[in-house]
Write a structure and sequence with these properties.
The structure is a homotetramer. By secondary structure, chain A is an alpha+beta fold. The first copy, chain A, is built from ten helices and twelve strands. In chain A, the strands form four sheets. A four-stranded mixed β-sheet of chain A has the order 10-9-8-11. In chain A, helix 1 packs antiparallel against helix 4. Chains in contact: A-B, A-D, B-C, C-D. At the B-C interface, strand 3, helix 7, helix 8 and strand 8 of B face strand 3, helix 7, helix 8 and strand 8 of C.
Chain lengths: ~425, ~425, ~425, ~425
């Protein structure tokens, strides 16, 4: 994480208030019952997201900055800790759905109390203590990550209910035609990769370093749902030669026949979404696919997925424009024209998630943050329509295991 | 099920109103969040119990008795059906905890609407239709079964929360001394077993038939927690020669070192209960043990478990007295004197659950009720402090798999 | 086990020599490679059967009877022990197939050495020591049990090989017509059950005791393969209402569509056997079915399975005639006329395997033999075409879990 | 795969004869029984290795080169195929241990027949047909891979037998002192990576391409067993902060406390090997560790693992010297002086196994060879004392999942 030389605490406090309030706003449409359930081990209940992000501020900001700090409730730290070493024992991830207590109301009171104390701290001289501003800034971005997870976890939960409840009733834009995909060609050579400079970044985005690229092209827009439907119709899910071995095994064992949430009705595709079940818009980016499906699709069209280095070298100078969660429309819109590299859908890269040359985790408990996950995951880039605009940047490295299918994940092709 | 020749519908309607209201009263101390969670595949959320018992009346009473019947909500029947054949497809048992919707409030409204219609039906001429009274009577007893399951499932759920929430704060009676156990001796011979006559019984309690018993003795009271603690201290959980082979495997794989919910603090035993964590009362019956533990304990003391025939032959003439859920105290009290055969704790018998000679399941969907479970289960008798008094009788056959440990199950010894 | 007052040791030695040699004869058609593989956790390699039965004589006969006894090889006792307590630690059952050593030749040498020593012991004064003759007699019957298991385990192993190797090439008799099934009616009342008197019996066959039976009928012959084929054609495997709940789950999860080893070719049924793949003889008893299938079939025809008490009361006075392994033909022959109660196929009874009233396991390690398995199993009666004639008797209680499908298990109906 | 412009078939035939004979020589110490067992799903029986490598020549060489080709036996192709698409259905990998037939003798006859035909083909005009020489060359290297697997699989099998059988009795060299580890420093910059030129290489070693390296150092020798023992003594297996998250989970769930095959006797380490149980030589390279252990060890000493690019850039100009399987000593010897980069132990690199820029799989069934495994694996470099010298080269990319612990895998450190 890199911070400006002078931490501007009141500005940080204001941004923090906005981000914290936005988390709660995302839960507005939920009933108490919706906050409790863990629909699979990889997902967490909304209540847990609300509490865990608060625990983060309590543990890494208040405990550091407030003299005589005492936790809000004895025992809660154990429940809402996701860190297994430095910050004490943690409750098993797969058992987060067993916690009917504390209630949603109690968790919201916890949020409010901690938010108030953090605001007070950041506006007081103690806020100048070493590490406080850095931890608060980190907590802000950590909370934005959990905002996206809250939505994807919720979408998964609601999808498992045969009643298919609606999170947000919105009038959706009609389908639009898809633009033909072109290629952005780049000459390769030595490129500079990774974060440097003044703004915030996670530790895994550095250190900045050089890499060598052969000439390559990257697609002008993501793969559309209509294009992916053609892959299905061509028997894509049955043609083992298109798939990685582990991928085909996952597809067979999981009974994959289409992206998650898709269903076919009389030859037309629908998909479950936070707006309930809606028609698949053929011109919108395909989302929800695993790395295995993205890779198989790319092989089917004779292309490949971009490396994260290729993607970043293209995105480096691009503005962070696109569709984001603040825009209030949670469905990725049509891929018209040359679609921006940000928003809409995270794209799977061909790059496994590993440390950059010279990488050192941040010291202390927050150092566990990213480094310990650097195996068995693939890097995703760009952000989605469930991300906040200000959370994204060209050097941002998201990562998930290659079989993951519940995030807003799509495909952008590359070629040599 | 046997019903009196003349169905007395208004009396039935009154009893039904009482039973339905009692279910809701059991949920009074719960938060909305507590109604949603399924803490293991064998358990169900409180909300599911509330809805499923209502579905039963809707499907087997209203659909039979009301002209032009239409279900309360399309799609709910699928969610709250536990019957896999005759009454349509059902939602997978292990996924009951995924249903955050309908909400508790919606389920209570469903209960209220169906209860009203059943009351109206039973007090109208349509209530005389064939099968209506029988189904309503069955629904009443079915609901009483679920009242007990609701409490045991809830106890399990709360026990999985490190905060150990309290369902009911009560002042509990202090521990009392345990009375020495004596033996009730019986000469054996041909005994009459099974239900006959006018009152209600489940189909598995009949037909009445003869059985032959060798002379035997049955203990004057259940095994106490203090006695079971001695078994633990004697290394009972480590001595394979005391156990059935499957039982020892279950104990080792499950890490069993004491009854479920027990924990040792500085040499003193406590246990989790609906009253929170409390001291184990050495004079009270041990509860929560599996058949395997009951069987191993019996072998340890050189006795055995009674057969269900032995138990019933003794209980036949005994009054249904003891501790029951209506008494408002959910902890089984001390085993003073010759303890009654009913209430306190279900006792594991040595009898696998099989059909009586000449058994025929009731016709129609409700016929699936008991017969299809007649394998891989052991019979329990007597009822517990979580049962309703009027739900119990000498011929009542409860049954659970031998590894089950979350019901209020205890031990009463027998000998030849 | 009950033995005659005077142990007739030379006679026992002769019988033992015959039985031990027969085990080896059963392995004659095998290659070394066939002796090694464990095709599922419930089955054991032929080599293990050869060694384990030898270990039994070494541990319970030689160690008892021979002064200065020392085991044949250090460490082998651990490998070939199936008893988990009294006779020391044992090698995990599911890992028996990991033992490529000792080789078959080494195990046969072990057999030979131990057999010689047992012969010598039984013909010497030490053979008169307490317990020696009893243990040797028990070892003989134990070995006969393993002869049958050796064949069923081998049949299972060869069936898993796509090449379908043939164990024994024999000319099989052609199919014969099936005789209509009649009923043997019995009036019920008090019957005497269990073994008493001079001959050998396992501990679980006693003590002899009285039981009460209602009037019943038992089928004059087993259910034939042709009759079972009609059940299949009538959709029997898809009709949940015919099945126990656990049974239907097992059938769906296991993909059961016919008895194990059956396959349909152009509308005709074949089955894998020790003779390779052969046509199903419609007039021969159906074999290989689980308790669940037997129970579902009985419900389909409106009958039920007999209790073990019913079966024994009928078999008590019947001669032990039928088809047995010594006859050299390993396929159960046609069910012509009133088929004998013994041989052909074990029949599933409706009785779970439990202790008889007053049962006490034999003292010492051999006491673990039967009692510890008295849960989660169903009793089978009568013996099969893989059993030895002299191994069988009316009181003999075989037992397997209700889902077991690799023994020679069939169906004989009963009715009230 | 790259082959010389003119395929020198007689030379190839000679090399092939040598390699095929060596496979059989590796099986000389085995009993028939040792060839059959599959000790875990990842391993294969020796018999399967013997047959599968033969199937490869039959399917990709003889079928291509011999007019009127017919397989040696119908049905065997199905059994010995490891390729799931282009070459037809295959027998499930996890069921290879179920095949007691064909026997070892039958498989050796199959080997001999196919070897003879391949020799004949390569020395005949048909050998000039397109693709024949390439496939034969590929088959040779494929067979060398399986030679190493045969030994590692066998070592695993024998280790699971409590008798700890000895594969090869050899006098082993005594322990020698360990040399202090130094660093080979490199300045980085643009390096050329991947295979080019005349010799054989697998498809995944190309295409040759440029990569950029920051300055780095690589250790002068592998980590020794004594050094790894210090990690254990320092609590390395219990210190979560040293481990990747997935790695620590694997270590806890697998009960890892030391490298596989290691055991502590009175404070001294021994390990199981193909020579039986032997003392751990503290000066020899540690072997058998997973990527997770290698990574944790590197973190413990404040270093890291090298990337495959770093390793290859150093190895590029190094001679292929070291300890290899032909030397007849199957234990990696002491790490004296600056140890060669080849032989002794494969070293885990920090590089996940992915395609090189511009990678295209070879056409046809053999194209499935490497590309489809390019996910969830880590690259290993250098070869081991179980590898053949002529099988290795600087561009060779071996790969295994990060939890794998049965190959001859060790650690060589790197630093920035």
């Amino acid at each position: 994480m890199t911070l400006p030389g002078t931490a501007r605490l009141p500005g940080l406090a204001d941004r923090l208030a906005t981000v914290r309030a936005f988390t709660e706003r995302l839960c507005d449409p939920l009933e108490a019952e919706d906050h409790v359930v863990q629909s699979m081990p990889e997902a967490s209940p909304a209540k847990w997201h609300l509490a865990h992000t608060t625990w983060f501020f309590e543990t890494f900001v208040l405990a550091k900055g407030r003299p005589g700090f005492r936790p809000y409730r004895e025992g809660w730290s154990h429940l809402f800790n996701s860190y297994y070493v430095a910050a004490g024992p943690r409750h098993a991830r797969s058992e987060r759905g067993l916690l009917s207590r504390p209630t949603v109301a109690e968790v919201l009171a916890y949020r409010s109390a901690v938010s108030d104390q953090v605001q007070e701290l950041l506006r007081s001289p103690q806020g100048e203590r070493a590490g406080v501003a850095e931890a608060a800034e980190l907590g802000l971005h950590h909370e934005q990550q959990h905002q996206e997870l809250l939505l994807t976890d919720l979408q998964h939960l609601l999808s498992r209910n045969p009643l298919e409840p609606v999170y947000a009733s919105r009038r959706l834009p009609g389908p639009t035609g898809s633009t033909p995909q072109g290629w952005i060609e780049r000459p390769g050579g030595i490129v500079l990769i990774g974060h440097e400079g003044a703004g915030f970044a996670f530790d895994n985005e550095g250190p900045p370093h050089r890499a060598f690229l052969e000439p390559f092209g990257i697609a002008s827009r993501p793969v559309s749902a209509g294009e992916f439907a053609s892959f299905i119709e061509d028997g894509g899910y049955d043609r083992a030669e298109l798939w990685l071995s582990d991928g085909f095994t996952a597809a067979v064992q999981g009974g994959w026949r289409a992206p998650p949430y898709w269903r076919s009705h009389d030859g037309a595709w629908t998909r479950f979404s936070l707006h309930g079940r809606i028609a698949v818009d053929p011109g919108a980016p395909v989302t929800g696919v695993s790395y295995y499906e993205a890779d198989a699709y790319a092989r089917w069209v004779g292309a490949r997925l971009p490396t994260e280095t290729e993607w970043e070298s293209v995105a480096r100078d691009a503005p962070v424009t696109g569709q984001f969660v603040e825009d209030g429309l949670l469905v990725a819109g049509p891929t018209s024209g040359d679609a921006p590299l940000f928003g809409a859908a995270w794209v799977w890269t061909a790059s496994p998630y590993v440390a950059y040359p010279g990488f050192r985790p941040a010291a202390g408990a927050v150092g566990e943050y990213n480094g310990k996950f650097m195996v068995n995951q693939m890097v995703l880039r760009g952000g989605s329509c469930f991300s906040s605009r200000e959370h994204l940047r060209a050097t941002y490295r998201n990562f998930f295991p290659p079989h993951s299918r519940w995030q807003v994940t799509g495909i952008r092709l590359a070629r040599q």
